[in-house]
Design brief:
Distance between the termini: 23 Å
CATH class of the largest domain: Alpha Beta
CATH architecture of the largest domain: 3-Layer(aba) Sandwich
Number of strands: 15
Helix content: 25-40%
Order of helices and strands: HHEHEHEHEHEEEEEHEEHHEEEHHHEH
Shape: globular
CATH topology of the largest domain: Aspartate Aminotransferase, domain 2
Oligomer: single chain
Length: 378
Amino acid sequence: MIPYGKHAIEQEDIDAVVDVLQQQFLTQGQQVPAFEQALNRYCGSEYSLAVNSGTSALHIACLALGVERGDSVWTSPLSFVASANCALYCGATIDFVDIDPVSRNLCPQKLADKLAQTAILPKVVIVVHYAGISCDMQAIKALSEQYGFYIIEDASHALGGYYQGKPIGSCQYSDMAVLSFHPVKSITTAEGGAVTTNNAQFYQRLGLFAKHGITRDPDLMEQQSPGSWYYEQIELGFNYRLSDLHAALGISQLKKLDEFIQQRRIRAERYQNALAGLPVILPVVDEQRCFAWHLYSIELQQHDRAAVYRSLNQQGIGVNVHYIPIHLQPYYQRLGFAPGDFPAAEHFYQNALTLPLFPALSADDQNKVIRELTNALM
């Protein structure tokens, strides 16, 4: 079966992990800080905090911004459920802003319309860079300055991409950006995530919430420290630390990120050229928002998606669907959402199909995907 996504692990990655196993601390050693520094260099951010998953990163980002009961958080319905769940973890309410059908990202105009009409403004808007293309961050930042909300970039798909010439994760137009290192993402730490920010106070709070709410910083303690062993819990935090094993893998992978992205772009361009004559809507390439190409998702125009999905699966091609809109999940419908609430996201979902795309996808396998998709649509 050709998977829709696959990690790329090479000998140097294995050697980096083995070195930690044999020579170093497995946790709370030097690899996590080194990985965080490498992320800062790559993204152009002032601070980064590595954690054990992208979901954890979203949670502590909300906590660091003070999201709590009585607050409202808005996000895109076209994402994995973690983009919305993080607000509920904090006791806040969640709402959605429909997507732009071309970029498949949260639509700035629909956001502006909703802000103008709502009685309860959001404390935070979590934008999702769907498939690895940046949202229109400059427009969303302008709205945040007008209405006074924070911005978290859910950049789980987008590490290695650019917006207006700057790396995604630089937080040029946001308060924080969340990254994911799940095996199908741009790089992997097996499981892992990170938050980048340029705000020292946010960074300090991120660290507290990721590490039990405990500090050894004398400036934050209520009592004078009697010795180096002393610490105080000043917040209700969580154990979201990343291990040094995972961080060592991340450091090794990050060195190859640009090559991984280049290989994704080459394969995406082949799809763009080969599928142009088929009855499908292809991703729209925007030179101002350079794709990281986490996903290659097409939109069928004249065919039953389920039938095409089955046909490709039967030929050993592991296509997928990204995503079932969050508001259609049973849990969210019990919160009051219903089909029809966000029609653009729902329309895309009904016709969406994600084709295999990853750095090691061979020409023969990609040709097979193209051939079998063509046969299924003709």
